[in-house]
UniProtKB/TrEMBL annotation:
GN (gene name): hmgA
Keyword line: Dioxygenase, Iron, Metal-binding, Oxidoreductase, Phenylalanine catabolism, Tyrosine catabolism
Sample GO molecular function, one term: homogentisate 1,2-dioxygenase activity
Source organism phylogeny: Bacteria, Pseudomonadati, Pseudomonadota, Gammaproteobacteria, Alteromonadales
Cofactor(s), by name: Fe cation
Residues in Homogentisate 1,2-dioxygenase N-terminal domain copies: 5-273
Protein name per Swiss-Prot or TrEMBL: Homogentisate 1,2-dioxygenase
Subunit structure, interactors included: Hexamer; dimer of trimers.
Primary role: Involved in the catabolism of homogentisate (2,5-dihydroxyphenylacetate or 2,5-OH-PhAc), a central intermediate in the degradation of phenylalanine and tyrosine. Catalyzes the oxidative ring cleavage of the aromatic ring of homogentisate to yield maleylacetoacetate.
């Protein structure tokens, strides 16, 4: 069967079957399912969540998920969960890319937590990680009960084999795996590295368009979901789970990826960021970065996101008599940035693909000195930023770097110096 056909439409109720007639008609859990399968429902929102935001999927599988051994703790020194007890200074921070592993390392073993906020047990905030791998997970399968997982590949393509189907994801695309969905990750063509947002809060949704109207930003039709696919393998597997901040392992006598058919709207999806319709200024002033929001995880206060996923892709800058890079600013929101490729317009040196930066609540930041001077004198002709892709994870909660992130030699201790040359231009005249 061709496993790379996709279903489309963000949050749609999808249905797909790997064997004809595997989906029951008119009843989710009949007395006997077709092919003698087991019916199992996964709910990633509360049963009574409003209909428009309710997410659940019915699976028809060879064995129910409960057919497994007991969990035992599994130590993972580098995977941290909020809350943490690390003092967070208000300094702007930046990091060089974390190196690829030198020894055989799969997705789970190569994951390193860089920053955290909120509280996973209270279902708010997020964990920000870097994943690195050079080998597949073999007979290891993983699910995360603490949050949904947003993958932002930076180097190398990956194949995500999930219990609802297979998705192939390359740099320039993103992958979201809902809370509780089982999966394994395999590099496609060499070592992989990327960023990972573990969203403890409300599931990601598309932001409202407001005055933009019916079109623009990310369009529902461009999100792709997997078709049904399953493994019928009776051999030892290891099921890994992230739960309540800890990692656990349990034996399974068969492949947990054994869903023959499914129907619902809680499923893994991918999105090509090149399909994002940038809505930028054509008159004056650099607009707020909220116009670049691809996905948002709402909080209990309207407009104050638990987490926004924002991108800065190739785009035209067309504006009149204005300073085009981001202005200097201090925000109530905290900003964590990464660079997938190219150069970010406000930081032309030091911020490289695979690198990261953190500007927390009310920490001042903005263009480095040379960028300010150049942009202040630039001829304002239409300009296109090409071959660039930066992203930002923005949150209403302070983003706290881990002890590893504070102490690693990959932290740029001289980052603050990029503003040292800012001088007074004031002369008392307009």
């Amino acid at each position: 069967m061709d496993t790379l056909h996709y279903l489309t439409g963000f949050g749609n109720e999808h249905e797909t079957e790997a064997l004809p007639g595997a989906l029951p008609v008119g009843q989710f859990s009949p007395q006997q399912c077709p092919y003698q399968l087991y019916a199992e429902q996964l709910s990633s929102t509360a049963f009574t969540a409003p209909r428009a935001g309710n997410r659940r999927t019915w699976m028809y599988r060879l064995r129910p998920s409960v057919a497994m051994g007991e969990f035992a703790p599994l130590h993972h020194e580098m995977w941290k969960t909020a809350p943490q007890n690390v003092a967070t200074p208000p300094n702007p921070m930046r990091w060089d890319p974390l190196p690829l592993p030198e020894h055989p390392t799969d997705f789970i073993d190569g994951l390193i937590t860089v920053a955290l906020n909120g509280d996973a047990k209270a279902q708010l905030g997020m964990g920000i990680h870097v994943y690195r791998a050079n080998t597949d997970m073999g007979n290891r399968v993983f699910y995360n009960a603490d949050g949904e997982m947003l993958f932002i590949p930076q180097q190398g393509g990956l194949k995500a084999e999930t219990e609802l189907g297979i998705l192939v994801v390359n740099p320039g695309e993103i992958l979201v795996i809902p809370r509780g969905i089982k999966f394994r990750i395999a590099p496609l063509d060499g070592p992989i590295r990327g960023y990972l947002c573990e969203n403890y809060g409300a599931p990601f949704v598309l932001p409202e368009r407001g005055p933009v109207g019916a079109n623009g930003y990310a369009n529902d039709r461009d999100f792709q979901y997997p078709v049904a696919w399953f493994e019928d393998r009776d051999e030892p597997f290891e099921l890994l789970a992230k739960f309540c901040g800890g990692l656990f392992t349990a034996p399974v006598s068969h492949s947990p990826l054994d869903v023959v058919a499914w129907t619902g709207n809680s499923a893994p999806y991918k999105y090509d960021l090149a399909r994002f319709n940038v809505m930028n200024t054509v008159s004056f002033d650099h607009p707020d970065p909220s116009i670049f929001t691809v996905l948002t995880s709402p909080s209990d206060t309207e407009g104050w996101a638990n987490c926004d996923f924002v991108i800065f892709p190739p785009r035209w800058m067309v504006a009149e008599d204005t300073f085009r890079p981001p202005w200097y600013h201090r925000n109530i929101m905290s900003e964590f940035m990464g660079l997938v490729e190219g150069v970010y317009d406000a930081k032309e040196t030091g911020f490289v693909p695979g690198g990261m930066s953190l500007h927390n609540a009310m920490t001042p930041h903005g263009p480095e000195t040379e960028v300010f001077e150049k942009a202040s004198q630039a001829e304002l002709a239409p300009q296109r930023y090409e071959a660039t892709l930066a992203f930002m994870l923005e949150s209403r909660y302070v983003i706290e770097p881990t002890r590893f992130a504070l102490d690693t030699p990959h932290r740029q201790r001289d980052y603050q110096q990029c503003w040292n040359g800012l001088r007074k231009h004031f002369n008392g005249q307009r």
